[in-house]
Design brief:
2 strands, flat, little secondary structure
Length: 126
């Protein structure tokens, strides 16, 4: 009697099993990345403890910095015709770090329009 497990199959044939982490090094990098890493376009906020937030684009808010160390990302500049040209707010900073600067509001177009205001950032104060 064999104890080996067979690969799953479908009507089309065998299914290849995906391996999201193929080595101990990749596993360690993934674990550390949860606590220490900078924000990215896909994930604008920094890791839980240490990292800087992502600098946003097109009126979006900047990413938040890590809880202990890290600055907030800059808010994206406003785009005319999108969300009234409003700029994004800067991301919040951690315990040690600066809040991200707000983006610049887009100039208003058309009669009676006004320029959008800049966003704001904040940091924790003790």
């Amino acid at each position: 009697m064999s104890t080996a497990l067979a690969a799953p199959t479908t009507l089309a044939g065998p299914v290849a099993l995906a391996s999201p982490i193929s080595s101990a090094g990749e596993f360690l990098a993934a674990v550390v990345g949860v606590f220490i890493s900078n924000g990215t376009a896909a994930h604008p906020n920094a890791a839980l403890l240490i990292g800087n937030g992502w600098n946003a684009t097109d009126g979006e808010n900047g990413g938040a910095g890590g809880l202990l160390f890290g600055g907030g990302g800059r808010g994206g500049d406003g785009v005319a015709g999108v969300n009234g040209g409003a700029a994004g707010n800067g991301g919040h900073a951690g315990l040690i770090g600066n809040g991200g600067a707000g983006g610049t509001g887009a100039a208003a177009t058309g009669a009676g329009g006004t320029a959008a205001t800049a966003g704001a950032g904040s940091s924790i104060t003790l």
